[in-house]
Every structure is written in structure tokens, then in C-alpha cells.
Write a structure and sequence with these properties.
Helix content: under 10%
Number of helices: 2
Structural class: mainly beta
Largest sheet: 14 strands, antiparallel
Order of helices and strands: HEEEEEEEEHEEEEEE
Distance between the termini: 46 Å
Radius of gyration: 18 Å
């Protein structure tokens, strides 16, 4: 991977994975409602844990607020990521990334919206919808420009992928590979390969290492990788984003339980 690649805060699939939690550590999570995932708002501190060296990404600090809600017929995810990034010995650059998505529980539809501001100016906008059926599906982007992407058969959306990871861990599985559409980038969908292992000393909790490959790319190395500590009730303890030449970690600092809907 190029050392000049702009580091992206977690979006789409990565953000959906932030809907999981290791038991204990922080107060506020009660019983999970139907589906096993709890409605919650979590705040994460973000820091660079490995830099890109001379000329590469040399600094990152910030915070993320993540909100996950059950809407009875689907799941709503809203995230705001604030980062101050430094490349080489240059000045810090402020980046704010807003991500909002809604996913149908039956897997038939997905809406997504991404806005990124760099130095106070809008640097990226992504909008669109996606639908699936037994033969695959289609994603229609309206921004940055209108275009469509054909989705292969068995494509799933972020929260469905999250639930698959939980089930893999619960069933004692070690590997999971799925095609995931998250709408967070123009390279979607991704082939996501995950290695899942139990977390030592934590019941019903796992550690996953995930590699993201753009579906239409022949690259032998992933575009990025994620290391995630998670449990079976819906909140992540930490996410390590690995971009090859640098790593950024998001670690939970505050957790609020939100009221589940009456469906």
C-alpha cells in the first residue's frame, strides 16, 4: 500500500462493527433486545499507534461518536469522526467525517450518506441506495456523480456482516469470508476475510482480524485491515485500523445505553 494513501476513519462496514462490546469494562449495557444488539451511543478516543515514518502519515488524534439504533424494520447508524492529521513534518489538518446509514433487517435495502470536510471545506460527498435479491443486487450512487454498481449474489450489508461475525464466534468458528457493501467508499463492494479468535479471559467475546479487498480489484494485498475486539451484545471495545504504513486505534471511553423501540 502506498504511504501517501489518505487515512480514512472507519466507515460503512468498519463503523457497523462498532456495534459490538466486550463484557465488563464500562457500565451502561443491559440486556440485549431482539436480535442481540443493544441500542447505544459510544464515544471513542482515536490515536496513532504506528506512524508512516519520514514523509508519511506522522500523527493522528481525535474522537468518534457512534450511535446505533433499532428502528423495528431496520438499523440506523450515525457516526461523527473528528481527526487532526499530520503528514511528515507538515502542519496538522482537521478532518471531520459524518456517516449515516439505514439497513433493512431482511437484507433487502440499504441507504447511505457520507460527508467529509477537510480544513473546513467539503472534500467528499457520497450518497446512494442499494437493494438486493436472490440474484445479487444493485447500488445506485447519486453523489459524487450518478452511477450504478452491480452487486454479486449473496452480498450483505454492514449490520448483517456484524451479526455473521458474532455467530461465527459463538459457533466456535475461526474464519469468515463475505462480500459486503457499506457505501462508505467508491470502491464498494468489498470481499472481507476475517479470522476470529476467542478473547482470553472474556466469556462470549472475540478478537477478529479483517482484510478488505475491493471486489473488482485483482490486488493480492488488502486495501486496509481492521483488528476488532467485540462481544455478543453489540458494542466494540476497540478497533485498530491498519493502512500498511500506519495504524490508527479507536478505543472506547464512554458508553450510553439508549431505549429500545417498542415494535
Amino acid at each position: 500500500m502506498s504511504g501517501n494513501r489518505h487515512p480514512r476513519p472507519p466507515a460503512g462496514a468498519a463503523l457497523a462493527i462498532l456495534a459490538m462490546c466486550v463484557s465488563g469494562g464500562l457500565p451502561g449495557i443491559g440486556e440485549a433486545h431482539a436480535g442481540g444488539l443493544v441500542d447505544h451511543r459510544a464515544t471513542y478516543a482515536m490515536t496513532m499507534v504506528r506512524s508512516g515514518g519520514q514523509g508519511g502519515m506522522s500523527g493522528a488524534r481525535g474522537a468518534m461518536v457512534y450511535e446505533f439504533r433499532d428502528t423495528c424494520d431496520g438499523w440506523q447508524v450515525d457516526t461523527k469522526v473528528y481527526l487532526r492529521l499530520r503528514s511528515g513534518r507538515g502542519p496538522e489538518m482537521e478532518t471531520v467525517r459524518l456517516v449515516s446509514s439505514w439497513e433493512a433487517k431482511d437484507g433487502s435495502g440499504f441507504r447511505f450518506r457520507v460527508t467529509e470536510k477537510t480544513g473546513g471545506e467539503v472534500s467528499e460527498e457520497i450518497r446512494g441506495v442499494a437493494v438486493t435479491d436472490e440474484d445479487g443486487g444493485i447500488a445506485e450512487y447519486t453523489r459524487p456523480k450518478p452511477f450504478t454498481v452491480k452487486l454479486p449474489r449473496d452480498t450483505i450489508f454492514p449490520t448483517a456482516h456484524l451479526r455473521s461475525l458474532i455467530k461465527t464466534g459463538s459457533d466456535g468458528g475461526k474464519h469468515l469470508s463475505r462480500v459486503v457493501f457499506d457505501g462508505g467508499t467508491l470502491e464498494n463492494p468489498y470481499v472481507v476475510g476475517a479470522q476470529v479468535r476467542p478473547r482470553r479471559g472474556a466469556p462470549d467475546a472475540w478478537r477478529a482480524r479483517m482484510a478488505y479487498f475491493p471486489f473488482n480489484s485483482r490486488a493480492q494485498t488488502p486495501e486496509f485491515e481492521l483488528g476488532v475486539d467485540y462481544g455478543d451484545d453489540g458494542v466494540v471495545q476497540s478497533v485498530l485500523q491498519d493502512f500498511g504504513d500506519h495504524q490508527i486505534e479507536a478505543r472506547i471511553t464512554r458508553l450510553e445505553k439508549l431505549d429500545a423501540p417498542i415494535c
